[in-house]
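Task card 7
Instruction: Convert sequence to structure tokens.
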Amino acid sequence: CKAGERGNYVALSYCWGLTVQTKLLMTNVDDFSTKGIEVRALPKTIEDSIIATRKLGIKYLWIDSLCIIQDSIEDKDKEIVSMAGIYKNATITISAAATTDCGQGFLEDRSDVQLRLNKSMCLPFLMPADEENPEEFIDCIYVCADPQMGHKVKRFSEEAINTRAWTYQESTLAPRLLIFGSGPPQWHCKEKWKIYGLNIHPENLPNQECSSGIMKITLQDGSIVADQTLKYFERLEP
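Output:
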């Protein structure tokens, strides 16, 4: 972009970790400007962020290690004071929330999510009538025999990205946050949270301290629920 030019861009929020990564330096700034950067030479998290940005259809991506001259005190002093504006004005900020090192990447399959789906069963139950729903109806919950299953799917506040003070402003100021954490992708903007594939707020995810209310009722009163459900189906038969 030229000075004063406006456009949409993605910003990346991530943990550097210990992996040696390609950085913008005084010695390579000219080569980066004229020859570009080989994507395969970048750490996995950076590579994944490029793929995600392309999938979003956005042309520009801001990454601190490649947009700030890392061995220039003058450039750091100038750019670091502007970082709040960078994340505040980004069209979308991608948060590689679960990774502790830039070499890990964030677009891989979540094995714990798939394991929870594979080990769960769908249980229908009868919902009594109330003011919101004037008629009885059948609903479903997914039940897993292992109470610890799926607890590696963390709330955003518990992800690795939030163990770094530096990233606080990156997620707080972002008007639109696309989170790749330990569970399904999450979307956070000024109006709503959304977990891909789940119709619950992220703060209602199960945790190791307690099971959900529905799970407790189902385990304690399962025979009652099953009996009521069976009677409901019998009433539906001609």
